[in-house]
Amino acid sequence: MCQLGWGEEGEAWRWRLFAWEEEMVGELMLLLHNVTLQVNKDDRWLWTFETSHAFSVRSVYNFLTVQPPIATSVVVSSLWHMDVLLKVVLFTWRLFWDRLPTKDNLFRRGVIDYNFMECVVGCGSVESSAHLLLHCNCFGSVWHFIYRWLCISAVVPLYVQDHFIQFSYSGGTAKVRQSILQAI
């Protein structure tokens, strides 16, 4: 790879890279530096999530749905080392431990009846932390605008902790991640 492309005679990048993308390309180059291609060996597909090493949609589905969420304690412990407002850290801590007064939590504690668990917007879903902040058509759509504003292409994960990790690491370097979290 040279400057902005895959070699002097190869394909060039179609757009100018951001600084964090250039850093990622450099890291990729370091990873690929020690890779040696074997000319006399045929290429083959290898899917490590099946014992037969054959790809199947079921194995992808199982991989994506069966994996347990990342340990909340690991994610929460990283919160206390960030330079953000204390009220943001406390809200996030309550969010990660599912301690916000959402309707599903109020129902679990016997405060409200089952009939009143619907989302405040009236979308028909049960009001939970993950629903309100990530999946609700009204409130969750804010993330789509933020992603578009930051030029990030991402799928909103199922769990809030996964979203925190995905969003905080989408900025590239630690310095960029820190400034993104401070901006929020």
UniProtKB/TrEMBL annotation:
<keyword id="KW-0808">Transferase</keyword>
<dbReference type="GO" id="GO:0003964">
    <property type="term" value="F:RNA-directed DNA polymerase activity"/>
</dbReference>
<keyword id="KW-0548">Nucleotidyltransferase</keyword>
<keyword id="KW-0695">RNA-directed DNA polymerase</keyword>
<dbReference type="Pfam" id="PF13966">
    <property type="entry name" value="zf-RVT"/>
</dbReference>
<feature type="domain" description="Reverse transcriptase zinc-binding">
    <location>
        <begin position="55"/>
        <end position="143"/>
    </location>
</feature>
<dbReference type="InterPro" id="IPR026960">
    <property type="entry name" value="RVT-Znf"/>
</dbReference>
<protein>
    <submittedName>
        <fullName>Putative reverse transcriptase zinc-binding domain-containing protein</fullName>
    </submittedName>
</protein>
